[in-house]
Amino acid sequence: MSTPLPAPETTLDRFARIVAASVRVPVERVTADARLDELGADSLDIVEIALDAENEFSVLMPEHSILEIAREELGQGVVEHEGTLTGTGKALLRARLPWLTDEDVAGEVPVARALAWFMRVETWVALIDRLMAESPAVCSRCGHALEQGSPGQLRCAACGATHDLVTGDEVNRQWVREFMARHGDAPPRTAT
Question: Domain residues of the chain, as ranges?
C-alpha cells in the first residue's frame, strides 16, 4: 500500500507561517477569518508581514488600499461620502471581498469599519493569489520557469532575463477600471 502524498501547501498555510512568526502566535491561530490586528499585529508588524509576503510569494504588495485607488480613479464622493461608504463603495467592496455579506454592508458603513476588513487574513491571501496570477511564470524569452530575482523582479535561471513584477497598486487600479466598465454608474444593488 502506498503512502499518500501530503497535500500541497496553500497560500493560506504559507501566509499563516509569516504572520505567526511576525506576531509570535501559534500558527493554528492564524485562520482565514482572523484579523491581523486581533492577532497582535501593530503597524510595524503589518509592514514586516507585507515585506515577508513579497519575498515568500514573489509579488509586490500594494501600498494603497482598494478604496484609496478607487478614490484616485473615480474621484471624491464616489466610493465614500463624509466617512461613509456609498452604494458604489459597498458594491465595489462586495465584489472585491466576496466573503462580505449583505448584512456586513447594510445601512451606513463607516469607512473605518471597511478598512478593518482589509486586516482579515483571507483578504490578504486573496490579494496574494491575485498578484501571483498576474505575475509571469515563465520567461518570455526562452520559456523556462522564473525565480525570484532582485526586489520587484523575477529572473530566468536559464537565460538570465529579468521580468518586472506588476505592483499591487497597478493590479488594484486595473481591477477598479474593469469593475466600473462592467457596472458603470449603476453598480449592482446592495443592501442599504
Answer: 11-183
Looking at the predicted structure, is the pLDDT value of residue 17 above 90? yes
Q: pLDDT band at 151, cuts 50/70/90? A: confident
Output the 3-class SS for the chain. Answer: CCCCCCCCCCHHHHHHHHHHHHHCCCHHHCCCCCECCCCCCCHHHHHHHHHHHHHHHCCECCCCCHHHHHHHHHCCCCCEECCEECHHHHHHHHHHCCCCCCCCCCCCCEHHHHHHHCCEHHHHHHHHHHHHHHCCCECCCCCCEEEECCCCEEEECCCCCEEECCEHHHHHHHHHHHHHHHHCCCCCCCCC
Quote the cell numbers at residue 124. 490578504
Superfamily assignment of 11-183 in CATH? Answer: ACP-like (1.10.1200.10)
